[in-house]
Amino acid sequence: MIRARFTHVDQTIRKITIKGHARQNEKGKDIVCAAISTAIIVTMNALEKLDRNESYACILEDGYFQVTVDRNDEIVEGLLANLEHTVKEIENDYPKYVNYQKEE
In sequence order, what E strands does 1-104 have? Predict the structure, then answer.
């Protein structure tokens, strides 16, 4: 199961940890893992493209993603909120394989 934890402070995302594997299908055919991975990659590429690299620290390994936000602005918050929304939607469609948690 993929476990996604979004930590909010003062109504802004400060940390995201996503870990595990969905195991919805064999490696290379797992659409749940592919969807979550794609959402993470698109978000991080957008932050990099928009030159927000100094706003966060990121760890990305097989089955593990963590981002800690140091400086938040509208663009960073918007992109991370979109990632959170996407993960929640995937959980709604595949609750056996994704567990979303919000911490405040």
Answer: 2-9, 12-19, 56-61, 64-69, 98-103
- Are the C-beta atoms of residues 22 and 94 closer than 8 Å to each other? yes
Q: What percent of the chain lies above the pLDDT cut of 70?
A: 100
Q: What is the pLDDT of residue 75?
A: 95
Is residue 72 pLDDT above 90, yes or no? no
Backbone region of residue 9 per phi and psi (left: phi > 0; alpha: psi in -120 to 50; beta: other values): beta
> What structural domains does the chain harbor?
2-103 (3.30.70.1490)
CA 29 to the chain's CA centroid: 20
Query: Within a 10 A sphere around the Cβ of 22, how many other Cβ atoms?
Result: 20
Percent of the chain with pLDDT over 90: 95
Mean local confidence (pLDDT), 25-51: 95
Residue type, 45: N
92 exposure class (CB count in 10 Å sphere: 0-12, 13-18, 19+): exposed
